[in-house]
Amino acid sequence: MKVGIALGGGGVRGLAHVSILQVLDDLQIRPAVISGTSMGAIVGALYAAGMSAKEIREDIERHLILSNDTWRDVVEKREDLLKWVYAFKPDFSGSGLINAEGILNFMLSEIKVRSFEDLEIPLLVVAADYWSAEEVIFEKGELLPAIRASMAVPGVFSPVPVEGRIMVDGGVVNLVPYDLLIDRADFIIAVNVSRVRSASGPEIPNALESVLGTFDIMQTTMLSDKLKRLKPDIYIWPQIRDVRMLDFGKIEEVFAQAASSAEGLRQELSQVLRKADLP
């Protein structure tokens, strides 16, 4: 059985994908193909390049001060902590609020390959052509420009020129690209890490939150429509609450809140594997 997994966009919430991939590792399920949008493309690239989910998580946690860290732990991490801070330096060029280059160089520093062809698992990365409004699927050639394009959230990250086209975040056209796996896998898992919305009273969001929140509403509406027409074999939506797209100070909370969805997937996949072994 060829398993395909689609990893959706959602900013820092996309690190929940690591917990989902850990389940596949634990059950010794190796995906035949991965598709990803935005942060899903980044995590997917790390995994497709040969890193295990455990290694990805450990690499991330080396750059965080965790709730159970001692002062000695913090001192030992100091160089990695500074790398994380520098990765998120602002971009004052006027085209975006954050310079994606630093973040990507940090997140992709463990990848030893630079092209799609050198990945251990085939990967499809989704971006959007700003001027033609078309979905663009990258699966060949240089890896880094495709991922930069996939995560270029309008108004937050700078648009990315690729082969003469101006690209923005893939979530504009395909938040969770499981439909791209229909002809490439027998069993499809789709992971949606979009925001779980809750009424918060009459509070008026600031300008950036308004942009990101509206972007999220648009993405969620499009995904809901697609789910009515085409369903994956397993659909997962971790209920990650009170974590905004750029809340990178809440990574530990993302992992904690994703745990229950990961356990649910473990049980569901275990049942699938048991049935597959039946004569």
What does this structure look like?
With 279 residues, the protein is α/β, with parallel strands linked by helices. It is 40% helix and 13% strand. It contains 9 helices and 8 strands. It has helices at residues 16-26, 39-48, 53-61, 71-76, 78-87, 100-107, 143-150, 207-229, 251-276, and strands spanning 3-7, 33-37, 123-129, 135-138, 160-162, 165-169, 187-191, 234-236. Strands 1, 2, 3, 4, 5, 6, 7 and 8 form an 8-stranded mixed beta sheet that branches. α5 (78-87) runs antiparallel to α6. It starts with a strand and ends with a helix. 39% of the residues are buried. Residues 90-101 have low confidence and may be disordered. A motif (GXGXXG) lies at residues 9-14. A motif (GXSXG) lies at residues 36-40. One of its GO terms (biological process) is lipid catabolic process.
Concise summary:
The protein is 40% helix and 13% strand. With 279 residues, it is an alpha/beta fold.
Q: Averaging pLDDT over every residue, what do you get? A: 84
Question: What fraction, in percent, of the residue positions are helical?
Answer: 25-40%
- Total count of strands: 8
Based on helices, strands and strand pairing, what is the structural class? alpha/beta
Total of helices? 9
Largest sheet: 8 strands, mixed
Strand content: 5-15%
Label the overall shape: globular
- Low-pLDDT sequence parts: 90-101
Euclidean distance between termini CA atoms: 15 Å
Q: Note the run of SSEs as H and E.
A: EHEHHHHHEEHEEEHEH
Gyration radius (Cα, Å) is 18 Å
GO molecular function: hydrolase activity
Domain PNPLA: 5-182
Motif (DGA/G): 169-171
Active site: 38, 169
